[in-house]
Amino acid sequence: MCDIDEAPVLPERRVVAHMCLKCREESSAVLLRGRDGYCRKCFDFYFVHKFRSQLGKTRAIEWDERVLVAYSGGPSSTAMLHMIHVGRTETHKSRLRIEPIIFFVDELVLTPLLPEQRAAVREDMQASMVARHLPFFTVPLADVYLSRTDPALPAPARAAAAEALLCSTLAAARPTARDDLRALMRKELLLQAARRYGCTKILVADSGSLLAIRALSNVALGRGADIPDDIAFVSAPIDGITFIRPLKEFTAREIGFYNALTRLQPLCFAPSEGSIGALTRTFVTSLETEFCSTVTTVCRTVEKIACEKSDERCALCQSLIQPNLPSPTPPAASRVPLPATAAPAAVTTVSLSLAAAAAAA
């Protein structure tokens, strides 16, 4: 499912007059970076080879290792799942030798789909995985609230109570907080699933465009220290479990072309609006239309950020904690005492400023 980071990208279908850059025989069907044209066959080879080489050169996954594949139904995860399936069905020696477990965090309750439409989507997903002979598991996003429901209730009643609690919590949150909360819930469910199925690696379909948006959003939110781990190809382990991002070198436009040429049909819903992530997405997307190297430049630049980190992690977001952080309180010598009569007004002014900043976010 598409979220603020994975907005549906519909590539422009334009007629390209020059020949394919690779084979020099066929007419170009895809135009990348504003100048590089590829025919259908060469683009498919380029896309798959780029994906396989990213996994191969890092050696992040051992042969026949069991890995959890995070599937959301969006454009990026649909393309990644298709390449995994094609790679495993090859017969030559370069076959992709992994044991994938497809895991779907069901967030359809937060979409405008009707209950019968959600059921149809779930059935289609299940049928698609059965046809590909892939193990498929799904967990509702509301399961993070099951521990807060009455254990004496029947299972359907507990699920309904957890779903109601999820919807009410997200409805009360502001757009930026809502996006962050959904991401934290999704991450926690993926970690729980990896422990349950005995996986130490989780493949997530984070594209280069998504990572560039995330990096700039982190800077705006004061999370610059989290950028190296949030955009790394292989993240720092969390209780022995690492996140791997094999689509890091792909832009959303490339993924859109691949889905169109292979006739894949991902789920696409309108992305959230009004949050810092949504504004950053609009900013990056508009720049990318004029300057085709925007995503690459942002990712290459933020990769150079380095900061000291401890081995401890935040209990809420699982981010690495920076040691020896300076206190935000100014030294006593620099404080200017306020008159007793001015104190209430000063407190009121600060409170109003914080409220305005929270409302703007």
Structure description:
The protein is of the alpha/beta class. It has eleven helices and seven strands. It has helices at residues 40-58, 75-89, 115-131, 155-172, 175-196, 208-220, 227-231, 252-261, 276-290, 294-302, 343-360; strands at 30-32, 36-38, 65-71, 98-106, 136-140, 201-203, 242-244. It has a five-stranded parallel sheet with strand order 5-4-3-6-7, sandwiched between helices. A two-stranded antiparallel sheet has the order 1-2. β3, α2 (75-89) and β4 form a beta-alpha-beta unit. Mean pLDDT is 83; it is low at 1-5, 12-16 and 338-361.
Keywords:
single chain, about 350 residues, alpha/beta, two-stranded antiparallel sheet, disordered N terminus, disordered C terminus
